[in-house]
Amino acid sequence: MMVNNAQWKDVYVQGTYTTKWGFFPGVSTSSMGAEAIVAALKDAQIKWGEVDAVFAGSVYQGTASGHRVVGEVGFTGIPIVNVENACSSGATAFRLAYDSIRLGQYKTVLAIGFEKMPRGPIPSTAFPSWQLAMGFNVQPANYALETMEYMHQYGATVEDFARVSVKNRRNGSLNPNARFQKDVTVEEVLQSAMVASPLRLLNCCPLADGAVAMILTNKPTSDRAIRVASSVLVSGVYGEESYQSGITASVHHYPSEGIVEKSAREAYEKAGCGPEDVQVVQAYDSMGPGELWDIEKLGFCARGAAPELLREGVFDLTGRLPVNTDGGLLSRGHPLGATALAQIHEIVLQLRGEAGHRQVSDPKVGLAHAMGAGPNSAVTILQR
Questions:
Q1: What are phi and psi of 149, to 5 degrees?
Q2: CA 219, 222, 223, 228 torsion: positive or negative?
Q3: What residue segments make up the domains of the chain, in order of their start?
Q4: Which CATH architecture has domain 5-115?
Q5: Would you state the pLDDT for residue 257?
Q6: Which of 38, 326, 355, 365 is the most buried (most CB within 10 A)?
Q7: The whole model's pTM is what?
């Protein structure tokens, strides 16, 4: 049933918190999640009993993982919904929390994402059995195929991809919660171990353990609350060529609008703004080249133009459009269920003016974009 737009409520992020990210063998997912919940409640200046529902995003944490996390804080009888949507799980939990408030079902909702990751490549199971047998679930290899095509079409170079890692590691050095907080040079990126040509180790994001909790509400209680202008989630588009599928599409008709473009367009339309209105961006950089084509697909520049803008410093902290101000996945790390919420967390900090040494100049609109196997594409736009 369609809902009259006039009935929709405004939604705000009132409180947010992220744990430090890294590998913590002696720390459980439940304790990380509980730490994030308690701190987010404190940041929001509300009590646990005021929360009406919980949407919990994770990927490989098992049955009722959100219940285990909430159980550390204390069960209150409220509904707990566990969300698994690959690397978009946190953004999906956020979207469900946002919609439940916007439609008047609840007043105050917790969205949380958390994950403990194994060492080594992500053991993705989001592929048909025959593709798993052929090794299509090796994400660096899939990205390498798209990277080669991007280089062929637009003339991008391995040096361009290295500059993404340099920028994001520099930003991450200013983020006390990032897994890696050390600068790297272009030469160090180009000399790091080859993973899947042309992608080297420092072109690839590191895995990590981590948790992010966020309190959403319909009535802000302080001027630190940040309005959610839109939260959009879309899935695959028939015929689109995509590394997420593991293979090149075999159909002859390709859609005029891909999954990222579609999610961005819907988010801009719902927010009543365009890419020209955005002052800070969290782009999906699980591999360095992905940040460049992500910026382009989100509408911030023409296809193939991002490498030159990167070289010009446009995406730096002091540039016209700062991108991945907290270091992105390449520096912060990638605990799958928490990653997309961490992107939103950084936008909230930037719009509040609370990002410390990585704070950009007076942003009023920020955008976060996450991708996940399936495929999924999630875009969130926040406004101060």
A1: -65, -40
A2: negative
A3: 5-115
A4: 3-Layer(aba) Sandwich (3.40)
A5: 84
A6: 326
A7: 0.93
